[in-house]
Design brief:
There is one protein chain. The longest helix has 27 residues, at 71-97. This protein has 2 domains: 1-57, no CATH class; 63-98. It has helices at residues 8-16, 34-47, 71-97. The chain has 3 helices and no strands. α1 (8-16) packs across α2.
């Protein structure tokens, strides 16, 4: 099993921006640890009480998502993610009201 190198500085930056309603983009050369960074961030979210059902993670290099490499399919996924985000906001407002 490969050893995971903790990217503490980068993880702290993601955590700092966690509550901002912006899309987070992590760039870098191939195999520099971007996916690992997101796995560490997902682990952080779960420790904060976020369930797996609340996390959307799509790795476009995974063959299960190969059809999303097409622009039109990506557009559909983007629309679905927008619905997911809006529904999540609605749920948060409902919980806060109760």
């Amino acid at each position: 099993m490969a050893q995971i190198i903790e990217r503490k500085t980068y993880l702290e930056q993601l955590i700092l921006w966690q509550e901002k309603e912006l899309i987070k983009v992590v760039t870098g050369v191939r195999r520099c640890g971007k996916s690992t960074l997101f796995l560490l961030f997902i682990d952080h979210l779960k420790k904060q009480g976020i369930t797996s059902n609340q996390i959307v993670s799509i790795n476009l290099e995974d063959e299960n998502f190969s059809n999303l490499r097409n622009y039109k399919q990506s557009e559909r996924v983007y629309s679905l993610l927008q619905v997911f985000i809006e529904f999540n906001k609605y749920l948060q407002q409902t919980v806060n009201i109760c």
